[in-house]
Structure formats: structure tokens, C-alpha cells
Design goal:
single chain, 96 residues, alpha+beta, Hypothetical Cytosolic Protein, Chain: A, three-stranded antiparallel sheet, 3 helices, globular, binds zinc ion
Amino acid sequence: MSKSRTANGTAIKQIEMRRCVVCRQVRHKSELLRVVKTSSGDISFDATGKASGRGAYVCKSPECVQILQKRRNFDKVFKSRISDELYDIVKETVLM
Ligand SMILES: [Zn+2]
């Protein structure tokens, strides 16, 4: 867990809020799944949430991942065609 310190030295948790690409709600990272585009241009499911690159997030909710697959929101976010497999992985991770 990353921490930062305020001027008086108190340790505080860094607030890591991200927006879901489907419902546009801002949630804590732990409630979201991350897909990342690396510097080499590969787009993959980031199970750790720590891979470097540009990330996009979707809620860990059956509603959001099903709409995600239907609308292919990640295609727009990353401006490229995302494989069906990747959408399946995201959906299965939530629905498992
Ligand atoms: Zn959502």
C-alpha cells in the first residue's frame, strides 16, 4: 500500500479513486478491474492493478461488465480494437 505524508508528518493513505468506463462512477481501485495499455501497445487485463501503462477501469459488478462487453467501451478508451477474449476475461473474473 502506497502512503504519503502530510506536512506534519502524519502518514495518510493515498486516495486511489478511479472512474468506471461504463457507469462513470468514481470508486476505490479495490472495487474496480483494470485493463492496461503498455508502452509497446499491448492491451491486457491487469490482475495486479500495478502494471505500468495507461489504465482503464470497470466496476466489479455483473451489470457493468455485461454492458462493457456489449458496448465495447474499452475500444473507445484505447482507440483500438480490443479482443473478444479480453472482454471475456474481464466478465468471467467478475461473474466467477
Ligand atoms: Zn461501473
